[in-house]
Task: inverse folding
């Protein structure tokens, strides 16, 4: 049970005193609440309002949930109205209704190739996810309602197929933010291809049609996509009734987990959980040392090798990421056909799935040369 | 089943993802479902076995397998056949790219 006094403890003095006033007249709440100044918040006596919720008086007998700042706005610089061009450059989102959606087309198969090249290193094969990077496929709609505490249930897994209500967000996000190392580098056709592939691995059907390798996605077909979780969100915020829906939703506290009734007077004591067996003493005591581990001097580790381990090894240690593995003589001799200068240039500017300087722009060109040297020497 | 096979020089590299809850008896009891897991996987190119494995509930749900083999060429058909513990057989073929 929530006790209102506990919640307001951290609010400002002004709010707290306003509460105190209404607290005194709690026995006749219906009439006593409108006497304070408009700028002072009043406790909303409605039974189902949010705990700690305030209403503020506006003009003409209207009330609002927000405090109105009545300070003078003289000398406040509010900027200027943006020009049509500025607005156009900013307003580039792709909306579910097709606003901003480019023309183009791409097949699942093309998307597969692109994905392998530019996405799979982080997002895993078939969108299965990588360490620390978002999972793009799998999961079920039903699992979204499962509590994580029940061992027999699958954990809710939010992916494109199980969670996203609109496909427009997908193509928009890919266009603006992916691939991570060099965003905005994909053409419109490539966008459609990648989107098609990601929808296909999520087993999404467009207009009843299964997306196989040859399926070509274009603008017209894109607008027919209905994502599985389209109607999974409450309240429904779309359309002219959106605001009303939200209001109605939040008016009922039960909708967001409120249980029981609120207590204002003579409340039972809150039950506080305490740690039963607190660890107060550890033998031997925790180390208080804050030194860095001792640096190994001597030995065969060169600076280039250290830099390689820190910046390049993640992808180049094995060939699972598609990068030439250090030690793989054949692959490297194929790479070295281009000549050392070209390889150095690729390492500095990035190539294919490889980000410029391996993603660490703090490295100098000379350091990159050393690292490449190290990698080539160790692959001979 | 999602299947993908690609030639890299003379090596065919295969990635395949199966759909199965991979619930052995213990897990199935917890989840209150019937035990269902992939028990046997076999991959063939032109009638010749290139990959074969016996599995059980210890593998993760919707497992992803990767393997590679020599001796195939572009355009060959790779056929993966999966048998689950209840005897259900699923099979899919794909051209090696």
Result:
């Amino acid at each position: 049970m929530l006790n209102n006094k506990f919640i307001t403890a951290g609010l400002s003095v002004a709010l707290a005193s306003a509460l105190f006033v209404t607290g005194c007249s709690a026995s006749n709440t219906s009439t006593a609440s409108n006497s304070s100044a408009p700028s002072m918040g009043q406790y909303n006596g409605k039974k189902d309002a949010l705990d700690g919720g305030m209403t503020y008086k506006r003009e003409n007998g209207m009330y609002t949930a927000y405090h109105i700042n009545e300070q003078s706005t003289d000398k406040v610089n509010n900027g200027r109205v943006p020009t049509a061009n500025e607005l156009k450059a900013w307003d580039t989102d792709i909306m579910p209704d097709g606003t901003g959606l480019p023309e183009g087309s791409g097949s699942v198969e093309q998307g597969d190739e692109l994905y392998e090249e530019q996405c799979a290193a982080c997002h895993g094969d078939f969108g299965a996810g990588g360490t620390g990077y978002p999972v793009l496929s799998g999961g079920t709609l039903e699992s979204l309602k499962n509590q994580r505490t029940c061992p027999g249930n699958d954990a809710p897994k939010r992916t494109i197929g199980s969670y996203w209500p609109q496909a427009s967000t997908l193509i928009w996000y890919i266009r603006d933010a992916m691939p991570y190392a060099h965003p905005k580098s994909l053409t419109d056709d490539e966008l459609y291809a990648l989107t098609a592939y990601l929808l296909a691995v999520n087993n999404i059907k467009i207009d009843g049609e299964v997306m196989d390798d040859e399926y070509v996605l274009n603008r017209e077909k894109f607008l027919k996509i209905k994502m599985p979780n389209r109607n999974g969100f409450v309240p429904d915020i779309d359309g002219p009734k959106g605001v009303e829906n939200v209001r109605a939703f939040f008016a009922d506290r039960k909708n967001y987990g409120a249980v029981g009734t609120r207590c204002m007077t003579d409340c039972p004591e809150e039950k506080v959980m305490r740690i039963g067996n607190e660890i107060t003493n550890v033998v031997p005591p925790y180390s208080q040392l804050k030194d860095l581990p001792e640096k190994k001097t001597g030995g065969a580790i060169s600076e280039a090798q250290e830099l390689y381990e820190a910046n390049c090894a993640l992808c180049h240690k094995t060939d699972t990421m598609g990068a030439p593995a250090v030690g793989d003589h054949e692959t490297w001799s194929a790479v070295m056909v281009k000549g050392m200068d070209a390889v150095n240039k690729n390492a500095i500017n990035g190539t294919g799935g490889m980000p410029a300087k391996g993603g660490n722009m703090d490295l100098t060109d000379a350091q990159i040369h050393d690292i490449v040297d190290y990698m080539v020497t160790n692959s001979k | 089943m999602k299947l993908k096979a690609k030639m890299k020089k003379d090596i065919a590299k295969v990635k395949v993802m199966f759909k199965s809850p991979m619930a052995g008896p213990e897990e199935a009891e917890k989840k209150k479902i019937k035990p269902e897991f992939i028990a046997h996987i076999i991959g063939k190119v032109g009638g010749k076995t290139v990959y074969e494995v016996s599995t059980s509930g210890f593998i993760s749900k919707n497992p992803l397998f990767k393997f590679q083999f020599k001796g195939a060429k572009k355009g060959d058909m790779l056929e993966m056949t999966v048998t689950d513990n209840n005897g259900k057989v699923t099979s899919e073929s794909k051209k090696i790219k």
